[in-house]
Amino acid sequence: MNNSIRNITISAAVLTTLTLSAQVEARKSDRNHKKAPEIVFSKLDLDQSGTLILDELQGNEQTKAEKKLARADLDGNASIDLTEYLAKQRHSHDLSTYATEIVQCVQALKDADEASLIVVPSSDKFASPEEKFAQLDSDDSGAISVDEIAQALATRQEIRFAEMDSDNSNDVTLEEFIQNGERKQATRAAVKECIDSLVDVTEVI
Questions:
Q1: What is the pLDDT of residues 11-22, one digit of tens each?
Q2: Which end of the chain is more exposed for a tag (fewer CB within 10 A), N or C?
Q3: What's the 3-state SS for the chain?
Q4: Residues 105-120: pLDDT tens digits?
Q5: Which CA distances in Å does 16 have to 20, 22, 23, 35?
Q6: Would you give the end-to-end CA distance of the chain in angstroms?
Q7: How many Cβ atoms sit within 10 Å of the Cβ of residue 79?
Q8: Can you tell me the distance from the alpha carbon of 84 to that of 131, in angstroms, rounded to the nearest whole number?
Q9: Between β-strands 172-173 and 143-144, what pairing exists: parallel, antiparallel or unpaired?
């Protein structure tokens, strides 16, 4: 009897462990599923044609711009001045003095691996926050409006689409979408590695 009870107890414990493990794996799978490029692609593919066109990437820039402005517009005057722009942490880091070295470092990482997916960025990517602000402030008013943000977002999507459309067919397949994501991931990792090796974080904060 004791052995039977012990066996039942062990079986119950094992079953509980397996159930908990399955639940954990299910949650991991669900998180990964949500991030899967196939899912993202399907959401972007509004007409479910199996390919993406530029219009599907664009269209809600105005709404996005309004949200971005609302988050950064600290004084509520419907525009973003330089002080408000620099208040965002990601805009406060100035890497411009390291731009050339970062680009050279990324190029070296790419050269070291013939199969590398790294795309070497231009030094413009590491312009100072003030320079980036000036680029957004297209009318030189000293502040960024919601329309200027929307235009910048639309331009960014045009560039993104051109990067994905590797065969210049004016549409993007799932394969091109996935390949572009892999290139971006590899490039992002390379840039981070180079920045970490070249820049003292305390100097740019």
A1: 444 444 444 444
A2: N
A3: CHHHHHHHHHHHHHHHHHHHHHHHHHHHHHHHHHHCHHHHHHHHCCCCCCEECHHHHCCCHHHHHHHHHHHHCCCCCCCEEHHHHHHCHHHCCCCHHHHHHHHHHHHHHHHCCCCCCCCCCCHHHHCCHHHHHHHHCCCCCCEECHHHHHHHHHHHHHHHHHHHCCCCCCCEEHHHHHHHHHHHHHHHHHHHHHHHHHCCHHHHC
A4: 999 999 999 889 999 9
A5: 6, 10, 10, 29
A6: 69
A7: 19
A8: 15
A9: unpaired
Which are the contacts of 154, defined by CB distance < 8 A and separation ≥ 6?
Answer: 58, 61
Sign of the Cα torsion 86, 87, 91, 95 reads positive
Inter-residue contact 87 to 75 (CB < 8 Å): no
Comparing 195 with 28, the larger pLDDT belongs to 195
Residue 112, amino acid: A
Q: Are 139 and 14 in contact (CB under 8 A)?
A: no
Q: Which amino acid is at 34?
A: K
pLDDT cut 90: percent of the chain above it: 74
Angle between helices 174-198 and 99-111 (to 10 degrees): 120
Angle between helices 174-198 and 37-44 (to 10 degrees): 120
